[in-house]
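[job 0417] fold request received: Methane oxygenase PmoA
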Amino acid sequence: MIFKRIFCLPALYLCLIVSVYAQKVSLKETTNGIDFVIDNQPVLTYQTAVEDVPEDVKKDFAKSGFIHPLTSPSGQVLTRIQPKDHYHHYGIWGPWTRATISGREVDFWNLGDGKGRVDFSHVLSKKEAGGAAELNVRQNHIDLKAPDNERIAIEEDLRIKVKPADKGRYMVDYTSTIETKIPGGILLDDYRYGGGIGFRATDKWGKANSTILTSEGDARKTADGTNARWVIVQGETEDVSGESGILFLSHNTNKAFPEPLRVWPEDQYNGEGNVFIEFTPIRHESWELKQNQRYALKYRMIVYDGKMTKEEAEAYWRAFVK
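[job 0417] inference complete; emitting structure tokens
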């Protein structure tokens, strides 16, 4: 969208017409899902189609309902799906791990166990307005081993909104609203993984070329299990600046705020230091979901090239919760 601003210099009887370009986010449907597009460049895809797995991998690991790829403003892919060490990892997503339903344990995270899973169901709404784009979808958390037949245990309405930010960056609002209709409700058991928002980073990032910093000043070596308002994850890319990253923000109305983190240690998996972080509201305390009550978790991501300072991160968080 082009806006024309007219600047006049009276002494010179001269008027200058300056065109100012305003970024606009649009939505584009594809065979795989729905793209968020800025300046004709897809920056984020929500995948509605089931992502198949390699021929020699258990079919239970095939899945829909996740964000991948997510790219930096310059087009650097920052997410990863189906890594060989964890075929159930899918870019940016947030299934619950240990859930108790009528005395039974159901795991929606570890797909290979065949106990539960989370998949895209249908689009609730789409909107483009004010330079931003918004997608609302239904995701179903399915109890695969229910006594009579598999059933929906949790209905999740996921809202994804993308809009331009300052300094050429863009922001992603990620709001998950969950509800169970099961009599007696569900207990989301305390565990180091589960729910919130999880991020499996590009395979190009390891302990030697990426960094993590939390709002409380913890780096990767000490961040696991701590509580935080925000966390910066950045690493080496082919952007001209040499780096790109994502700032993850947790809203102060979220369960267990400031939220506990799961951060993989630097020696994770053959010493390569693969990067995984997650806001995990049930890390230290279980969460009871009562029947027919809705619960919301709100997150924001600032996606950028270059570096993010702790002062900038704090300012973004204050704007988020204002």
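[job 0417] notes: The chain has one domain: 25-321. The chain has a mean pLDDT of 93.
[job 0417] exit 0
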